[in-house]
Design brief:
502 residues; mainly alpha; Growth Hormone, Chain: A; 3 domains; 19 helices
């Protein structure tokens, strides 16, 4: 490959990693954001709004690349992501931040699919190993550097820079891609499954609201929750019906005729939900209970991130050598369940180093599930459906992250508020929560109120740890249904949507 193409591919990778880097930076920044903007009830929606929008937009960006050329579609996705980043950094309240994060998610939906499609279009199969090495380096850097950078920006500048920093990185990506990658003229006849996308989005939003509001804002047996359940059920049923009839479905139903493929998608959803425990909720405990700085909380969840990265790389290498993959989702489910249960050992007086070390097991479990489900998906789908299959596993991961952020966030907030109210009474608890729970705010409370706040946050983390352990048990049980099949000897294409003429 010539130097110009390497520069262009570097730009592609830079654009692609802005999304995971942004997600990892947000965890340590969230406690400060909630304290600054208020709205504890909506803090999980800062994550959920992004993920729902991303899930809805991903198939649309892929098809737009087919229609109008992948270079300009990818550049448009980066530009929209940067617009959402800038607006999120300038948000004046939590409602604005949630809306702007949705804008960011609409752009983020085109980053991964656009990057992989460009590589498939520009690089020969023989050269792809070297190019994918860029991804192999970039993704661990995003997972590990993100929490540290997020904490550093909060301490030294402002939480707003956790969003603003995307702008120079994204602009560099745009300039490199625009200057060095040739545009491929493309005007094909193809259809976008708009009804399918809209129905899937409606179902996701309804399910996320159901998980977020059920048992907290509204009783589980109440009219609003029943209405959301009905909307979700109708949207899902209509989505399945539409996908069976449309020429180019978002999720081809024929793929789910294979048991291993179906099990892999469900496991990926569970892995996506498990990721939220470490990326979003543990920094709350580390900052509000142990008194860690935002940078310190990013540093303390590094074992989880390192466990995830090592499991991803190590299991991929072992599967390539042995050709066997069934054991990895089984072990991954067991590690997720065990890794969540050990978080029950956390308390107001838990040693900081022990807290950090305990995150390793769950992170490794999520990594094993993520890598193995990707390989099972690729190995189970027909070659002609490889683009749709790869998009499916990404979609299920995003759905799991979205529903996990909403459901676990509601569980955390509900347990925190109940504990604080039981210990201090409704008026005092209301005053503390109205001011936002920040590390500085907790330190400024009287000793008894501090103890109550520490207990409340700890109980909230224990609640999501139990929920995460239940997810791990489900994953462990389902993983036994996976069958070892010989890995294909023929090369499968990198994720790229096929051009289908209608």
């Amino acid at each position: 490959m010539n130097r110009s193409l390497y520069a262009g591919l570097t730009g592609v990778v830079l654009g692609m990693i802005t999304a995971p880097l942004d997600g990892m930076m947000l965890g340590p920044a969230l406690p400060v954001i909630v304290g600054d903007l208020g709205g504890l009830d909506y803090f999980s929606w800062v994550v959920t709004a992004y993920l729902v929008a991303m899930a809805a937009a991903t198939p649309i960006w892929g098809k737009l690349g087919d229609l109008y050329g992948r270079k300009w579609t990818y550049l448009s996705a980066i530009a929209l992501f940067l617009l959402g980043s800038g607006l999120s950094g300038a948000a004046g309240d939590m409602a604005q931040l949630v809306v702007f994060r949705a804008v960011q998610g609409l752009g983020g939906g085109g980053l991964m699919v656009g990057a992989l499609a460009l590589i498939a279009e520009l690089v020969t199969p023989r050269q792809r190993g070297r190019v994918m090495g860029l991804f192999g380096v970039a993704m661990p850097v995003a997972f590990i550097a993100g929490p540290l950078l997020g904490g550093l920006f909060v301490e030294q500048l402002s939480w707003r820079w956790a969003f603003y920093v995307n702008v120079p990185v994204g602009v560099a990506a745009i300039l490199l891609v625009a200057a060095t990658i040739p545009a491929t003229p493309r005007r094909i006849k193809a259809s976008i499954d708009v009804p399918g996308v809209l129905l899937l989005t409606a179902a996701l939003v309804a399910l996320s609201l159901l998980a977020s509001w059920g048992g907290s804002r509204y009783a589980w047996i109440s009219a609003p929750i029943a209405a959301l359940a009905v909307i979700a059920g109708i949207a899902l049923a209509a989505f399945v019906a539409v996908e069976r009839r449309t020429a180019e479905p978002v999720v081809p139903p024929r793929l789910y005729a294979d048991r291993d493929f179906t099990v892999a998608q469900v496991l990926r959803l569970l892995a996506g939900a498990g990721t939220m425990v470490f990326a979003t909720f543990l920094p709350q405990y580390l900052q509000l209970v142990l008194g860690a700085s935002p940078t310190g909380s990013g540093l303390l969840i590094l074992p989880a991130m390192l466990g995830m990265v090592v499991a991803l790389i190590g299991s991929g290498w072992l599967i390539s050598r042995t050709g066997r993959y069934r054991v990895y989702p089984i072990v991954g489910g067991a590690l997720v369940a065990g890794g969540m249960l050990v978080l029950l050992a956390l308390g107001p007086g838990t040693d900081t180093a022990l807290t950090s070390a305990l995150t390793l097991f769950g992170g490794a479990g999520v990594g094993l599930l993520t890598q193995s489900t990707t390989i099972i998906t690729i190995n189970s789908a027909p070659l002609r459906d490889m683009g749709a299959a790869s998009g499916s596993v990404t979609l299920w991961h995003t759905m799991g992250s979205s529903l996990g952020a909403a459901g676990l966030g509601a569980l955390y907030t509900h347990r925190l508020r109940d504990t604080l109210t039981d210990d201090l009474g409704t008026p005092t608890a209301g005053r503390i929560l109205a001011g936002g729970l920040t590390p500085g705010g907790v330190r400024g409370l009287p000793a008894a109120a501090q103890d109550a706040a520490h207990a409340a946050v700890t109980n909230g983390v224990h609640a999501i740890a139990l929920a995460g352990a239940a997810l791990g048990v489900v994953a462990f049980t389902l993983a036994w249904l996976v069958r070892d099949k010989p890995l294909r000897n023929s090369p499968a294409p990198v994720t790229v949507l096929e051009e289908t003429h209608v």
